[in-house]
Structure formats: C-alpha cells, structure tokens
Amino acid sequence: MHSRHDIGVLDALDRFAIQDVIARYNNSCDDFDLDDALSMVTDDAEVTLYVNNGDQPLLQVVGPAQIRKALEPRHLQHQAIGIQVHHLIQNLELVHADSAEVELRCQVLVLYQRVEDPGKPAPQPVQSGWYHYRMRRTDCGWRIAGVVASTCGVYDAHAIFDV
User: Fold this and answer.
1) What pTM did the predictor assign?
2) Is 155 helix (H, G, I), strand (E, B) or coil?
3) CA–CA distance from 69 to each of 32, 75, 105 (Å)?
4) What are phi and psi of 14, to 5 degrees?
5) What does R_g of the chain's alpha carbons equal in angstroms?
6) Which residues form the domain of 16?
C-alpha cells in the first residue's frame, strides 16, 4: 500500500473515476435511486454507521441486499414527508492506495430540504462528519467496497420540520 503522499500509483483517470463513483453513489441515494446507488457497490460491500460519537455502530450491513434493506425505510419516510436529502462531499483525501484498492476519507455535510413547503425552501444542515471509503477496482471499474460513516447531528426529520 502506498500512503496518501504517494498518489502516483493512481493516474488522473483513476482518481476521477473514484471521485465520480462516490459522487454518483451519494447523488443517487439523495435522489432515492437505490438501483443506481447499489450499482456502485461490490457484492461484498460493507456499510457501517456511527452516530453522535457512539462507540457501537448504529448500523452494520454487508452486500447490496442488506444495504437496500437498511436504506429503503429511511428513503420512504423522507419521501412521505417531502424531504429531499443532500450529501455535500468535500475534502476528499487519499489515505492509502495500490493498483487494486484505495482507501480515502472525506468530510460530509448532510442537508434536509422540504420540497413541497414554499415557506421553508432553504436546505437545513442536519448532520456532519466523516465518510471513510474503501474502493476496489473491478471488471466494471472502480466500486465501493466499504463505507464507514461517522456523523453527528439530528436524524429525525420531525425534529427539524413541523411535519
């Protein structure tokens, strides 16, 4: 493995492809398009979620079917009350890399926005933290093999919006 100071192991196209997969995954989740989001993960992808500085994960799932099962209820709740979620991914930093796997982290700011309430159209920041991604080169290109999310904030839309 190479350190973040030796990114020469990845060419510019690899770095762009990795960033594109991360952006597409988050945008697809935001748009409730789980089919597209899950096309960006490997069959053995692991998702782990820590919230509000917890010592134990709130969520830990493996594989697209379990990821879908974990995400669908939240998506359906957001749709039912008219919430659009926006993940703002910033400061993407390469931690380790070789020609087959890459580990990186980024800061995340999560916004909720009421889509059908003209009185409250502005996105509201609700969570922030770090996402740690493990990416793997596959026959289909770079895919997400793991995400560890550590965020703090409000997780209940009812606490933000009067719904």
Assistant:
1) 0.89
2) coil
3) 13, 11, 25
4) -60, -45
5) 16
6) 2-154
